[in-house]
Design brief:
The complex is a heterodimer. By secondary structure, chain A is of the alpha/beta class. Chain A folds into 3 domains: 64 residues, no CATH class; 63 residues, no CATH class; 175 residues, 3-Layer(aba) Sandwich (Rossmann fold), CATH 3.40.50.410. Chain A is built from 9 helices and 14 strands. In chain A, α2 crosses α4. The relative contact order of chain A is 0.11. By secondary structure, chain B is an alpha+beta fold. Chain B has 4 domains: 151 residues, no CATH class; 128 residues, no CATH class; 112 residues, no CATH class; 70 residues, no CATH class. Helices cover 57% and strands 13% of the residues of chain B. In chain B, the strands form 3 sheets. Chain B has a 5-stranded mixed beta sheet with strand order 7-8-9-10-11. A 4-stranded mixed beta sheet of chain B has the order 1-2-4-3. A two-stranded antiparallel sheet of chain B has the order 5-6. In chain B, β5 and β6 form a beta hairpin. The chains are: A alpha/beta, B alpha+beta. At the A-B interface, α1, β4, β5 and β6 of A face α2, α3, α6, β5 and β6 of B.
Chain lengths: 371, 496
C-alpha cells in the first residue's frame, strides 16, 4: 500500500488546481512554469499554499550573511530586481522558488514530463548531416585539460609493477611522460531531421502587451520543446495587421501596430516562405498563428480557409492556431476554424489561451499529439 | 512505513558499532539510537512529516513532500539524514549514500541525540512522540470520518494560523506539562483500549454521555475566565482552547496541535546550537578517529558543503560549530573573565594562554543550559564576528538590490538576537477576552522594533475570528504609531 502522504499530496495538488477548498484560493501560488533568468539558470516556482500567521514585514528587515565586501556592496545573486517591487502586502510573499542551473535540454525534459508530452515522430528523410565529436577513445597525446587521470595512473602502475619498482609497503605511483593518456574524440556524422517553425502573430490594435507576453512565453516553450526533438531548427517570424511582413525575433514581440486585421495576409506570406525555402518532403514544418480572433471580413476568412486547405495543411506537420483572449477581440476566427475542422482535427490544432495560467494547457494542446 | 525502512546490516552495522564506540569514548550521552535505512522517497516523506512516519492527514505535509521531491528530482537538495527526538532516538539513513557519508551522518546523529537528551530546553519533551503522533493521526482521521474532511481540514488550517502563538516560558512549567502528559497517557491508554476492546462502542457511548454531562459546567467556567487574570498571555493557543466557544472535537484538535507545537518548540529554539553541536562531533569523530586516508577527499567535500557560508543567510551549522570551537579554544587558553577582558595590552592579549584545558568541559556545559539566544548573547565576541566575516544587509530601493549595510559588531549581534528571539516570531499576548466589555478578543503585539506584516495579520485575525466567533482586535505599532487592527466578521478596521 502506498504511504498516506500520497493522499495528502494528491489533496494538495487538487487545492492548487482549485478543484477543492475554494476558500484557500487566495493563498495559493501556482507555478509550474519555469522562467529563464537570462544567465543559463531558471527559476522553477513551486506551487505552494501559504498559511497566514503573525509575522514581521520582510523588506524592512533585511538579513545577514557571511563573506567579503564593504558596506554598500551588493549581496550576491540579488542583482537589480528593479525598484518598486516591494511593498506588496500579504499572500504573495510565501512563494517558494528554486533557482536551478539547468541546460535547455534538461528543462525541455522537465516540461515534457510535467505535461506528459509524447516524443515527436518526424516525417521526411534524414537530410541534414551533422557532425558530432564524442570523446570515447583514448590517445597518447593531447592537451592537459583532456588528461585521463585514472588511465594515466593505471599505466604508471602497470609500468612500475612490470619494472619491479612498485613497493607494496609504500604504494606511491608516479607517472612519467609515456604513461600519460588523454581523452580523444571520434567524429561521427549523423543525418538529422530538420524542422522549421513559422510564427505568425496578429499585431493589430486589439492585441495588448499582456496578449503579447502570453505569445512570447508560449513560443519560448514551444521552441524549447521542438529544439529538444530536432537537432536543427529554424524559426521565422511574421507579423500582420492588414498586411504581413517577415521580421526578426525582437521586432516580433515588440511591435505594436494598429489598424485592421486580414489574417489571410499572414497565411499568404507563410505560404511564400515555405514555397521558396522549405521543401515539405524534407522539412518538418510547424506554422503557429496567434491572434485574438478578429478578422475583418467573412470573405477574408474564406480566403484563409482556402489557403490552409490547398497549401499550408498539405505542407505542414500540424497547423496550430492559438487564440489569445483580449478585451476587444470577438474570437470569431476560432469559431470559424472549429466549424470547418472541428475540435479534433488531425492537422489543425486549436487552442484558446485565456490568461497566463492557461499557457501550459495550451502547450499541451499543441504538442500533445506528438506530430 | 514498516516496509519502507529496514534496520542496519552488514558493513553499516559494523560502522555503527565503531562510531558508537567513539561517541561513548568522547563522553556523549544519549538515549539508544535506532538507525534505519531507507530510499530517498521515504526520507522525503519523513522530512515532510517533521521526521515522523505517521501524522494526521493534511495537505501541508503533501506540499512539503511535493517540494522536497521536486528539489531532489532537479538535483538541488538532498537530505542525508533525519533524526527524531524520541526514546529510543530514531535516525534514518539514505540507502544511496556513500559509506563515508554514512559515517558522517552517524556521528552527526549521535551529536543530535546527545543534545536532545541533555539540553535543558528539551527536558520536558515527550519522548514517546512517535506513538503520540500516530494517535493524533488516528483521532483526527476519525473526526474527519465523522464531520467531513473539508470541515476538519479547514479547522486545522485556522489553528495552523496561530501555531506560533505559544509561550517559550511554558517549556519549564512542569506542573502544567505534567498534567498534560498524564492526560495524554490516559487518552493514549483509552485509545489502545478502544482499539482492542470489543465493547468499544458501548464504552464510547458511555464516555460521550459523561462528556455531555460535563459540558454545561465547563461553559460556565469559561464565562468566568473572561474576567479572570490571564495566566500565560503568550500562549494564545491555550487561551483559545480554554475560552473560545469550540465544539468538543474542535477543542480536541486545537489541543493536539498545541501539543505538537510545543513538542517542536525546543528544536526551533536551538537550531544553531543543535546543528553546531552535531557538526562539531561529526567533525571531531571523523577527523580524529573514523576517517580512512582514502575517504579524506569525500569527507572534506561533504563537510565543506554543509558548512558553506552564504551571503544571504546565516548557516546555523557553520555559526554553531565555529562558536563551539571558539568557546573551546577560549576556555582552553583562559581567554575569558575579568582579567582577560580588562587587559589592554594587545600583544599580551594576542598571545594569551593560561593552559587551563577547560574547553571541552565548557562546551559540554554550554550545550546543557543554553538556547540560541543566550548562546549568542553570551559567547558571540567581536573577534569571532570579524573572523566569520559577518555582515548585515538591507534592501536598497534606489538600486533595487540588497546591499551590505554594516560590519559593526553590536549591530550584527543585535540583529542576530532579534532574529532569534521568541524563535523568530513576533511576541503576541492576550490582553483581554472581554474587550469593550463585549466579549471581544484583544491581542497585543509586543513591539520590539520591527513592524508586523499587516497583510498577513489581517488574514490571521480572520482565522482567529473563526475560532473566537466574536470580533477580534490586535494592537500594534506601525511606523512608530500605535495602531489597532480589528475584524468583526465582515470588515477590517484600522484605528490609530
Amino acid at each position: 500500500m502506498d504511504h498516506p502522504i500520497k493522499r495528502d499530496h494528491a489533496r494538495f495538488r487538487k487545492i492548487v488546481k482549485g478543484r477543492i477548498r475554494d476558500n484557500l484560493r487566495k493563498y495559493v501560488s501556482k507555478g509550474e512554469m519555469p522562467s529563464p533568468k537570462g544567465d543559463g539558470t531558471f527559476k522553477i516556482p513551486m506551487p505552494s499554499i501559504d498559511t497566514p500567521r503573525f509575522k514581521f514585514g520582510d523588506k524592512s528587515q533585511g538579513g545577514m550573511g557571511q563573506g567579503n565586501g564593504e558596506a554598500g556592496d551588493p549581496v550576491d545573486g540579488q542583482e537589480g530586481e528593479g525598484p518598486g517591487q516591494g511593498g506588496e502586502v500579504g499572500n504573495q510573499a510565501g512563494n517558494k522558488e528554486l533557482e536551478v542551473d539547468l541546460s535547455l535540454e534538461e528543462l525541455a525534459h522537465i516540461l515534457g514530463e510535467e505535461l506528459a508530452l509524447p516524443n515527436i515522430e518526424p516525417k521526411g528523410k534524414k537530410a541534414m548531416p551533422s557532425v558530432t565529436n564524442k570523446y570515447t577513445s583514448i590517445g597518447m597525446t593531447g592537451p592537459n585539460s583532456l588528461k585521463h587521470f585514472k588511465r594515466t595512473y593505471k599505466e604508471a602502475m602497470k609500468r612500475q609493477i612490470a619494472s619491479g619498482t612498485y613497493d607494496f609497503l609504500d604504494p606511491r605511483v608516479i607517472p612519467v611522460k609515456r604513461d600519460f593518456r588523454y581523452r580523444a574524440s571520434d567524429a561521427k556524422v549523423e543525418f538529422e531531421n530538420s524542422a522549421v517553425v513559422i510564427y505568425m502573430m496578429d499585431v493589430s490594435g486589439s492585441m495588448g502587451d499582456e496578449q503579447k507576453e502570453i505569445v512570447r512565453t508560449e513560443s519560448f516553450w514551444i521552441n524549447l520543446w521542438l529544439k529538444s526533438q530536432y537537432k536543427d531548427i529554424e524559426v521565422r517570424y511574421i507579423i500582420h495587421d492588414a498586411t504581413a511582413k517577415e521580421v526578426d525575433e525582437e521586432t516580433f514581440f515588440k511591435t505594436r501596430e494598429s489598424g485592421g486585421t486580414l489574417i489571410s495576409s499572414a497565411l499568404k506570406l507563410c505560404r511564400e516562405i515555405i514555397q521558396s525555402d522549405y521543401d515539405p518532403s524534407e522539412w518538418n514544418i510547424y506554422p503557429f498563428h496567434f491572434s485574438d480572433g478578429d478578422n475583418w471580413s467573412a470573405d477574408d476568412t474564406k480566403l484563409c480557409l482556402e489557403i490552409l486547405d490547398q497549401d499550408l495543411l498539405p505542407a505542414s506537420n500540424v497547423f496550430c492556431y492559438g487564440q489569445v483572449e483580449s478585451r476587444y477581440g470577438s474570437g470569431q476566427f476560432y469559431k470559424d476554424l472549429v466549424s470547418r475542422y472541428g475540435e479534433q482535427d488531425e492537422k489543425v490544432i486549436l487552442s484558446k489561451i485565456k490568461n497566463k495560467d492557461a499557457i501550459l494547457d495550451s502547450i499541451k494542446d499543441f504538442l500533445g499529439k506528438g506530430k | 512505513m514498516a516496509d519502507r525502512t529496514r534496520p542496519l546490516e552488514g558493513e553499516l552495522l559494523r560502522i555503527r558499532d565503531e562510531i558508537y564506540a567513539y561517541a561513548i569514548e568522547f563522553g556523549l550521552d544519549f538515549h539508544p539510537v535506532r538507525f534505519e535505512v531507507c530510499d530517498y522517497d521515504t526520507i522525503n516523506i519523513l522530512a515532510a512529516q517533521g521526521g515522523f512516519p505517521s501524522r494526521y492527514p493534511h495537505w501541508r505535509f503533501g506540499m512539503d513532500y511535493d517540494q522536497l521531491s521536486k528539489g531532489y528530482a532537479y538535483g538541488l537538495q538532498k537530505i542525508y539524514e533525519m533524526v527524531i527526538n524520541t526514546n529510543p532516538c530514531y535516525a534514518y539513513l539514505l540507502n544511496a549514500n556513500h559509506i563515508v557519508d554514512q559515517k558522517i551522518v552517524m556521528a552527526h546523529v549521535y551529536g543530535h541525540a546527545d543534545f536532545f537528551k541533555n539540553n535543558a530546553w528539551f527536558a520536558n519533551t515527550d519522548r514517546n512522540m512517535m506513538g503520540v503522533m500516530a494517535n493524533h493521526g488516528t483521532k483526527i482521521r476519525r473526526y474527519m470520518e465523522r464531520y467531513g474532511q473539508n470541515r476538519v481540514e479547514e479547522f486545522i488550517d485556522r489553528v495552523n494560523s496561530i501555531e506560533n502563538l505559544i509561550d517559550v516560558g511554558l517549556l519549564f512549567e512542569t506542573q502544567e506539562l505534567k498534567r498534560q502528559r498524564e492526560e495524554r497517557m490516559k487518552v493514549a491508554k483509552e485509545e489502545i483500549a478502544k482499539a482492542e476492546d470489543d465493547r468499544s462502542n458501548a464504552l464510547k457511548s458511555f464516555m460521550r454521555h459523561k462528556e455531555r454531562q460535563n459540558k454545561p459546567e465547563q461553559e460556565e467556567v469559561a464565562v468566568d475566565l473572561r474576567e479572570k487574570k490571564i495566566n500565560a498571555p503568550r500562549d494564545v493557543m491555550l487561551y483559545l482552547l480554554e475560552n473560545a466557544p469550540l465544539e468538543e472535537w474542535e477543542s480536541d484538535i486545537l489541543g493536539i496541535l498545541r501539543d505538537e507545537a510545543y513538542y517542536f518548540l525546543p528544536q526551533r529554539l536551538t537550531k544553531i546550537m543543535n546543528e553546531g553541536w552535531a557538526s562539531y562531533w561529526h567533525s571531531h569523530i571523523m577527523t580524529t578517529r573514523a576517517l580512512k586516508a582514502s575517504e579524506i577527499i569525500d569527507y572534506a567535500d561533504h563537510h565543506a558543503g554543509v558548512m558553506a557560508m552564504s551571503r544571504q543567510n546565516i548557516n546555523p551549522y557553520k555559526i554553531g560549530i565555529e562558536l563551539y570551537r571558539d568557546i573551546e579554544y577560549r576556555w582552553n587558553t583562559g581567554r575569558f573573565g575579568k582579567e582577560y577582558n580588562d587587559c589592554e595590552d594587545m600583544h599580551k592579549k594576542l598571545n594569551w594562554n593560561k593552559d587551563l584545558g577547560l574547553g571541552r568541559q565548557k562546551i559540554f556545559d554550554v550545550r546543557k543550559t543554553h538556547n540560541d539566544v543566550s548562546f549568542i548573547d553570551e559567547f558571540f565576541t567581536p573577534e569571532f564576528c570579524e573572523r566569520q566575516q559577518l555582515f548585515t544587509y538591507k534592501y536598497n530601493p534606489r538600486t533595487g538590490r540588497n546591499e551590505i549595510e554594516t560590519r559593526d559588531f553590536m549591530e550584527i549581534k543585535n540583529k542576530l538576537l532579534s532574529q532569534l528571539s521568541n524563535f523568530g516570531s513576533p511576541v503576541i499576548e492576550v490582553e483581554s477576552g472581554n474587550y469593550h466589555n463585549r466579549g471581544e478578543l484583544l491581542l497585543k503585539h509586543v513591539h520590539r522594533g520591527v513592524d508586523l506584516d499587516f497583510g498577513y495579520a489581517s488574514d490571521t485575525l480572520k482565522n482567529i475570528y473563526a475560532l473566537w466567533k466574536r470580533p477580534v482586535n490586535i494592537v500594534s505599532k506601525q511606523e512608530e504609531q500605535s495602531v489597532t487592527l480589528s475584524y468583526d466578521g465582515k470588515e477590517f478596521k484600522q484605528s490609530k
